[in-house]
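Quick one:
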Amino acid sequence: MRNKKILMVVYSYFPQDVRPRREAEALINAGYEVDMICLKLPDQNKFEETCGVNTYRVNLSKSRSSRRKYIFLYASFFIRSFFLLNRLFIKNRYAVIHVHNMPDFLVFLSMIPKIFGAKVILDLHDPTPEMLMTKFAEERDSRLTKILKWQEKVSIRFAHKIITTNKSFLDKFISRGCPSDKINIVMNSPQGSIFNNRSNSKEKSDKNKYVVMYHGIIIKRYGFEELLNAVNLLKDKIPGLELRIYGTGEDMSLFLELVQKLNLEKIVKYFGQVPIEKIVEIIPECNVGIIPNRLTPFTKINLPTRIFEYLHLNRPVVVPRTQGIKDYFDESSIFYFNAGDAENLANVIFDVYSNPTKTLDVVNKGNQIYQNYSWELQSKNLIKIYDELLN
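Output:
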């Protein structure tokens, strides 16, 4: 009988990180056994079975701070996970070690299992050079960027198979030397078992309010300043306007200060971090979702999963006009605004509000595109990759 034991490694929390979760559940449904090594939140157990996954947690927490802190935490996680992974491999003899980035070099945790015949998958959620160029304002030819591109290259070379999340990412990795026959796309799409399992009590938004919604990380490069300024421009144009924010981030204090500075306390409602199961109930209460990203090396090629989440629940979504999104959506199938332009963002939101017939048509076209990339189809791509790799 073919060995169908899988070990995943992710420098994140499980089951909170939705990509490892949806991939693990898809593999379990296909008959694989999945274990997971991940970080530990203060209220989590070091070991438990959750979502059908044997979860082993390393007693570390993420920190969004300095480069030195990142390096220390990455190194600590690598060292602790190395001994845990090899102990588990001796016990379970996994067929595949599936490593999620960031960082890319976590793939080398599997060096001993690879020697003994295990296959290695590197799941590149994001391109590390572009992500850290954006975070630390690095130049494309800086020493750090060159190091990151080098470690990406050797990590890709070490793995048997590469998975990434969208066409722009795939093109980027191939342009930096990844063989085209080694890399496949498994997109981040809403998991049907979660997004179809919701109550019908909140299908309609409050008719006395016009709810604009943002959910995600609260940091400047994701455009909360432009979003708040756009809402400020619209507060006297759209009756009952309300902005609902879900999430947290390192620029939380700046966000709250700007809310006060613009006198938007009665319009902006902040709800903190909520799990994906709650987001499923919240989106139907909104009239439009906003992804207000600024233009950065990363956001230019990123395809935010939140687009599909809004479209899955038949809500319009306003997005920046970037290559990563234009790879999938044309001007008639989604609402684009000029990234970094609060006035243009306000105009697009007002267009969504003022033209319900047009809005419905755009949502329907967007939803048709999304159906081509649903998780039901993406999970089949994942299982096909595994079956081909092991056969």
